[in-house]
Amino acid sequence: MGPISLLGNLLWLFLGPGIVCFFFWVIAGSIMALTIVGMPFAIACFRIAGFAALPFGRTLVDAEEAGEQRIFGTTFFAILWMLLAGVWLTMFHLIIGFLYFITIIGIPFALAHFKLAMVSFNPLGKRIAYPG
What we know:
Helices cover about 65% and strands about 5% of the residues. The chain has about 130 residues and is mainly α. The protein has a two-stranded antiparallel sheet.
């Protein structure tokens, strides 16, 4: 992680919405973990929580791009997630991102929210990657 990414992550975490986003994803994962059916969602939520806390200098890729095999039933669970939580989380991150985007200094935070909006729609099978 470069110095600019480190600075962005520190500002995001302590002055921006980083801690709030982290806790929302952890709470969502904890709720999903209460049921057996929700366990794939819980694992994805906890993974995204780590990304939501420190989004700068990292990206999310599909597990297939990271060299893993696709798990059977992922499409069904992705549709279920999209209907139950994905639409709402995506709208939340898009609205907050647009509000940050109208300020000059908030544009990096807006871009981080847009990354989170893309993964909020379908978090299953995502892995954190460090672009080289």
